[in-house]
Structures are given as C-alpha cells and as structure tokens.
C-alpha cells in the first residue's frame, strides 16, 4: 500500500501544532549568543550576558537548555549557573564548576558546556540566562567572553510533552 503524501499547500496556516506532534518532538529552537566580556567576583553569581527567551506552546512542554560558555581563569576557577526567569535551575554543587590547582598559577581558557532539561509549565515567555562567579578572590580572575574575543552560545529547544 503506497504512503500518502501531505502537501504543504493543502494545510491551513498553523494546522501543524505541538498538540498533534508526538511526545519528544522538537517544536521550536531558539538560539542566543554574546561576545561581551564580563569579569566575575567571588561574592555571588552575576549575569554573564548570555540569554535567550522562548515562549512554549504548551504547559506540558519541556525545554532543553544547551550552553557553551567561553570562560577564562587565572588560578582556581569559577562556576556557571543556569537561571530561568529569576529562579536558579542549575547551580554547581560547590562554589565552582571547574578548578585549577592554585599552585600552578596557570592561565587557561575553556568552553564550559552545560545542558539541562527543564519543565517551566508555562505558555508565557520564559527567559534563560547564565551567571558566573569566581572561586576565590585576590589573585584569582574569572571572566566570561574574555577581551570580547570569545563567543558564548545558548540554545533552547522546546520538546513536546
């Protein structure tokens, strides 16, 4: 038995919605980036400038948040958190996500990757952003998007629930 073909010109505008898509289907993808340097202290998490906003089509949808954060550190290291609107949804279990031996006095760069599957239970606009903090003060430095040369990315994927 031959398969039927559905032609786009035979569908009404908006006929394919997340309501008819199988669970696990990608409904929409939003992408954001920044290249603006931010210097972080160890007094608490502060915005990195990396942000993106998505409006879920259903309260049962999940949002897959994928982050690639450009980080630079001199001694010790730092931490990256993920925030939905004003609520932290991922925070390292310690004061840092990565750490270098302070006795080496090493300077290093890395693209720190994070991902989390979130359930915002909303059909209103939802903002996701990252925040950073230095592990230690004094001789330690922690920057995101160092010298405006390195780019960070955030991708939001709405997954049908």
Q: Uncertain segments of ≥5 residues (pLDDT<50)?
A: none
Based on CA atoms alone, the radius of gyration comes out at 20 Å
CATH class: Mainly Beta
First-residue to last-residue Cα separation: 32 Å
Instruction: Note the total helix count.
Output: 0
| CATH architecture type | Sandwich
What does this entry look like structurally?
- The protein is mostly beta strands.
- The chain has a single domain, classed as Jelly Rolls (Sandwich), CATH 2.60.120.
- The chain has no helices and eleven strands.
- The strands form two sheets. Strands 1, 2, 4, 8, 10 and 11 form a six-stranded antiparallel beta sheet that branches. Strands 3, 5, 6, 7 and 9 form a five-stranded antiparallel beta sheet that branches.
- A hairpin with a 2-residue loop joins strand 5 and strand 6 (87-90).
What tags apply to this protein structure?
Jelly Rolls, elongated, 161 residues, five-stranded antiparallel beta sheet, mainly beta
Summarize this, please?
This protein is mainly beta and 161 residues long. The protein is 0% helix and 52% strand.
SSE arrangement:
Blueprint: E1 26-34, E2 38-40, E3 46-54, E4 62-74, E5 76-84, E6 87-90, E7 98-100, E8 107-118, E9 126-134, E10 141-144, E11 152-159
Antiparallel strand pairs: 1-11, 2-10, 3-9, 4-8, 4-10, 4-11, 5-6, 5-7, 5-9
């Amino acid at each position: 038995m031959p398969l039927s073909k559905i032609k786009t010109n035979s569908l009404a505008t908006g006929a394919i919605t997340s309501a008819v898509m199988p669970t696990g289907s990608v409904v929409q993808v939003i992408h954001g980036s920044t290249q603006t340097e931010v210097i972080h202290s160890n007094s608490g998490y502060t915005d990195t400038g990396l942000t993106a906003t998505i409006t879920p089509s259903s309260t049962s949808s999940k949002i897959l948040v994928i982050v690639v954060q450009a980080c630079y550190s001199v001694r010790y290291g730092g931490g990256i958190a993920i925030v939905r609107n004003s609520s932290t949804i991922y925070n390292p279990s310690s004061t840092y996500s990565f750490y270098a031996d302070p006795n080496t006095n090493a300077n290093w760069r890395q693209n720190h990757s994070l991902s989390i599957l979130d359930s915002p239970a909303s059909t209103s606009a939802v903002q996701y952003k990252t925040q950073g903090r230095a592990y230690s003060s004094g001789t330690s430095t922690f920057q995101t998007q160092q010298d405006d040369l390195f780019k960070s990315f955030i991708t939001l994927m709405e997954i049908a629930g």
